[in-house]
Amino acid sequence: MRATGDQSGARLIAADVGGTYARLGLVGVEADGGITVLFHRRYPCANFGGLAAILRRFREECEAAQAGPFPADCVVAIAGVLQGDQLLNSNLPWKVSLAETRREAGIAQLHLINDFEALAWALPQVPADQLQVLGAGDGNGLRLPVVLVGPGTGLGAALVIDQGGRTGVQPSEAGHAALAANTPLELDVVRLLQSRFGHVDNERVLSGPGLVNLYQALCELRGMQPRWHAPSELVDAADEGGDLLAAECAALFCRWLGSFAGDLAITFRAGSVCLAGGLAGHLDHYLRQGGFMQRFLDKGVLSDTLRDVPVYTVEHGQLGIIGAAAWHAAHHPS
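^ that's the sequence the OP posted. Answer follows.
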């Protein structure tokens, strides 16, 4: 994969920290902008007392693997918004202070960026043959501007734009904007969630925990007792075919996600849309049943403007790490 920048032989630590897993890589950035992940590890966030503890563990494993001197620069792509020294995030098992993390981890230069901003920085580096067509794709890759949407532990969204011939990224917190209901059933779901949470934002439904919220609401509306309490259990039950309500829930989730993605596409007049995030991969079968694209296109007089907008899915993998390194190369050229 390639990144913008001309750091000759630079090495840094690039990390992608979500609500469930932290992926860390020792990354090399070449003079021509090429990015190589030299050493990589993944850690469950719940097993650590904080971000600094994960960085220290990664340093220990780098040293044990004789991966060379530990770099002074570290970029962490992490869910949330940095306000002053503190990260605002509802999905992590611990609080994050930039200054304390830098001190406790022994990192000279530590940068925190939004996790979906990092994924967006990685998108232009993804080869066209690694994009899976969901709708209207022609196999020629992404056209800017690109709307990136990712349901996972939370709901991420970002925009990849052209800034005078250079790639730029606009992060967002669209996952915390109000959830829009489009059918009587969705209105009933929103009413139930509103009585439980107050403000009902998009990720109350369009995320892993949101999938469970949606299932519990459907159970209440149907007078049934919930059988599943984790997203993985619910998806497995839907895939196995023995639980019709679980399957209905997965299909409704994908239709609702299609409506959200279509809203973002017309808001930003997107040239293409890309779905990432772990949940998109787990629900791929339901995304391809047709409900997602039907709702994506259901925008009244603007429906025709979306028919030629390609929609793709992409595996997350090491994209967050690559994107964090690409962000550093673009913002800190040597």
